[in-house]
Amino acid sequence: MHKIGILGHPIKHSLSPKIHNYWLKEMGINGKYNAIETPINNLKKTIENLNNKGYIGLNLTIPLKEEALKYINKKNKTVDIIGAANVLIFSKKGYIEGKNTDVYGFKKSILDLVKNKKKETAAVIGSGGAARAIVYVLIKMNFKKIILFNRTKKNAEIIKNDFQKKFAKKIKTKINCENLKKMKNSIEQLNLLINTTPMGMKNFPNLNIDIKKLKKDAAVFDLIYNPLETKLIKESKKRGIKNRNGLDMLIYQAQKSFYYWLNKTPKITNELKKILEREIK
Ligand code: NAP
Predict the structure, then answer these.
(1) Helix 16-26 to helix 270-280 angle, to the nearest 10 degrees?
(2) Whose CA is nearest to atom 2 of ligand 1?
(3) Distance 142 CA to ligand 1 centre (A)
(4) How many CB atoms lie within 10 A of CB 188?
(5) What residues contact 211, with CB distance under 8 A and at least 6 apart?
(6) pLDDT tens-digit profile of 81-104?
């Protein structure tokens, strides 16, 4: 039996077991995907235990994605640039490979949103682990300018400096950093607005921004999927602005994780999306 799991703290509300166990069943694969409560100080021991128990791999949530870099034997360039691995692959006992599928998840789910749109200025709200994956994709998409808006401007500057260093001179994208409070001064110039903070999530306050001056032909992406419609998404809809929540990103990152563990690409069906939407509602 293939054993896979997700580590986090808290982890009991994660949708990942629903997604992976659905695919295992649909594809007739003998396996089980478990949610395993793991405080950060237990990460090393838990990884070792599960590796010894014959697990084939794991997903990790924040802040374990960053912490896990200390314990992996092999990482690719994406993991190195992002500084986080949300997938661990146990190819043989004691040998751990780290991958980042948030990048793939975001890339796949934003394609349709920005199709035929100008790629001049994108605003990324937040400067944590998720923002790094997003900035990476926007650079690869050749956006001319990214403005990182964050509550703590210093954290945005850390991302900017890291990316400039790690991409060496190859970056064509200009990266600016601003305090989130200054967002109103730039909103009219944006082609794309992305929320990567937890603001708007269930049990969190809403993001305090005003999008009345956002261009009608801009696009809005909110990484949050619970609720399915944050205040930001509702307001975008009301103004007729193309928008997307974070559910597809979650499913695509899961699809790629599944591929890394089992060498098979599971299908993203409407039935699966309905199951997840019902779970969220
Ligand atoms: P993180 O590393 O903890 O970063 C959170 C960021 O949000 C930080 O920049 C932080 O600002 C900012 N923030 C937190 N509270 C805030 C507040 N009250 N006001 C303004 N800004 C605030 O988290 P992460 O890994 O980047 O994840 C962020 C969100 O993305 C989470 O909600 C997560 O669920 C979601 N996510 C979704 C997917 C998906 O597949 N859809 C994938 C990954 C993540 P400071 O720098 O000032 O602390």
Answers:
(1) 150
(2) 128
(3) 24
(4) 11
(5) 187, 193, 220, 232, 235, 236, 239, 241
(6) 999 999 999 987 789 999 999 999
Q: Could you give the CA distance from residue 14 to residue 122 in angstroms, rounded to a whole number?
A: 29
CB 211 within 8 A of CB 235: yes
pLDDT band at 251 (very low <50, low <70, confident <90, very high): very high
Do residues 244 and 110 touch, judged by C-beta distance below 8 A? yes
For residue 233, what is the enclosing H or E element? helix 231-238
Q: Which of 3, 65, 169, 242 is catalytic?
A: 65
Amino acid at 232: L
How remote is the CA of residue 126 from the centroid of ligand 1, in Å?
Answer: 6
Cβ–Cβ under 8 Å, residues 222 and 201: no
E strands, the chain, in order: 2-8, 31-37, 55-60, 74-75, 87-92, 95-99, 121-125, 145-150, 174-179, 192-195, 219-222, 242-244
147: which strand partners?
123, 176
